[in-house]
């Protein structure tokens, strides 16, 4: 793939760990954009936000025309962190990733509101990483950086 417009997106089934005995399934969208080559995104349904439940789209306007669905909660972190974390513990900051038993990978997200612990099938994460590396090979990320665009996004 050439240019900076390549987008890799994959929906994966994860498990949100609620306690030692309970977990809940949820779909997570993994996204990689060649125009932001160092980052990956995990997008979670809005109802799983750490800062409380999102407003029900059926409340208030009853889902009236023009009402935009909530896009979800997006976490952005380094692609290399995900690539490292599927093989060994990684993550000195708010995102920690490590391999687990049963061909799973644990993703721990930390925010002032709390901590979310998720299990992902490792093969799904590896497939996503493989596809992202087809878009922008590891080590070639700086060739796809657009410093003017990045600065403009920061100043918005």
Q: Can you give keywords for this protein?
A:
7-stranded antiparallel β-sheet; 156 residues; alpha+beta
The count of strands amounts to 7
Q: What is the number of helices?
A: 3
Unreliable residue stretches: 53-65
Compressed to H and E, one letter per element, the order equals EEEEHEEEHH
Give a short account of the largest sheet.
7 strands, antiparallel
- Mean pLDDT across every amino acid position: 83
Rough outline: globular
Distance between the termini: 29 Å
Characterization of the model:
- Helices cover 19% and strands 36% of the residues.
- It is α+β, with helices and mostly antiparallel strands and 156 residues long.
- The chain has a seven-stranded antiparallel beta sheet with strand order 4-3-2-1-7-6-5, with helices on both faces.
- The chain is globular.
């Amino acid at each position: 793939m050439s240019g900076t417009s390549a987008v890799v997106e994959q929906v994966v089934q994860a498990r949100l760990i609620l306690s030692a005995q309970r977990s809940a399934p949820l779909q997570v969208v993994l996204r990689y954009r060649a125009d932001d080559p160092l980052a990956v995104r995990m997008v979670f349904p809005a109802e799983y936000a750490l800062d409380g439940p999102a407003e029900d789209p059926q409340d208030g306007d009853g889902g009236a025309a023009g009402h935009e669905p909530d896009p979800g909660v997006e976490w952005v972190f380094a692609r290399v962190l995900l690539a490292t974390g599927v093989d060994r513990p990684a993550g000195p900051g708010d995102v920690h990733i490590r391999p687990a038993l049963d061909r799973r990978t644990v993703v721990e997200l930390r925010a002032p509101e709390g901590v979310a612990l998720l299990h992902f099938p490792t093969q799904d994460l590896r497939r996503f990483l493989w596809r992202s590396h087809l878009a922008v090979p590891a080590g070639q990320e700086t060739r796809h950086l657009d410093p003017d665009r990045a600065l403009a996004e920061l100043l918005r």
